[in-house]
Write a structure and sequence with these properties.
Length: 229
């Protein structure tokens, strides 16, 4: 059964149609990697999934909930749909640990003690057990991105969305973030990943989707799509 279902999704900005009827299914435990040139609508599609963008028409479902239904409480959906952005979006005045605690306390109403316990656990999981009391500006971009991943994981998401999570990083810092993503995939996390990392797509994806100009132009298992002439 699919966790995320996208049906005939359209999105326009004024006269410009950026998504022209996207259909997609993401099944439990599956990693779907979305590839395509800049401007093809990948980020817009992902942002429609947690309603950072309002689609012009079409339907998106998360499990049995229609995300695109105006009556759906999107904050309930966002508790289960973790998102990692290109630019980390950490609070600069909070330590790594506090950054991972704050949404747990505010959104999930976890106690400080429980939020702290889970923050420590998740920061260790992404390899930052020795950086928990550092502020973002004392961390490399790759470490900041791993804090952002830990923050998303602390919410116990059913699915994780990654929007160009490594694109803002210096080349030598990309690997650590991809390693964390590979490990999540191995543990069975359901993931939608927009990336330019072809190696990651080839090795980790269960399903690859190529977008161009607002439509899906090709899709399939990596060994199918990458061997096509
Ligand atoms: P990708 O992620 O594939 O690079 P995007 O989804 O970011 O593509 O963008 C698709 C197209 O939509 C681009 O042409 C971009 O300029 C346009 N676009 C994105 N956001 C907006 C916006 N808020 N207003 C107008 N155009 C936008
Ligand atoms: P991304 O790397 O996620 O594609 P962009 O740098 O393209 O992000 O866009 C950053 C922000 O600017 C987004 O909120 C996007 O919706 C908006 N945006 C992108 N393209 C345009 C555009 N042509 N006109 C207005 N806003 C845009």
């Amino acid at each position: 059964k699919s966790i995320i279902r996208i049906r005939d999704l359209h999105k326009s900005y004024g006269d410009t149609e950026v998504l022209k009827g996207i259909d997609m299914d993401v099944y439990k435990g599956e990693v779907v990697v979305i590839l395509g040139p800049s401007g093809s609508g990948k980020s817009t599609m992902l942002r429609c999934v947690n309603r950072l963008e309002e689609p012009t028409s079409g339907h998106i479902y998360f499990e049995d909930t229609e995300i695109t239904d105006k009556k759906t409480n999107i904050n309930e959906v966002r508790k289960h749909v973790g998102m990692v952005f290109q630019n980390f979006n950490l609070f600069p005045h909070l330590t790594a640990k506090k950054n991972v605690m704050i949404a747990q306390e505010k959104v999930l109403k976890r106690s400080k003690e429980e939020a702290e316990r889970i923050a420590i656990e998740q920061l260790q999981r992404v390899g930052l057990g020795d950086r928990m009391d550092h502020y973002p500006d004392g961390l490399s971009g790759g470490q900041q991105q791993r804090v952002a991943i830990a923050r998303a994981l602390a919410m116990n998401p059913h699915v994780m969305l990654f929007d160009e999570a490594t694109s803002a990083l210096d080349p030598e810092l990309v690997r650590g973030v991809l390693d964390v993503m590979r490990e999540l995939a191995r543990e069975g996390m359901t993931m939608m990943v927009v990336t330019h990392e072809m190696g990651f797509a080839r090795d980790v994806a269960d399903h690859v989707v190529f977008m161009e100009n607002g439509v899906v132009i090709e899709r399939g298992a990596p060994d199918e799509v990458f061997n096509n002439p």
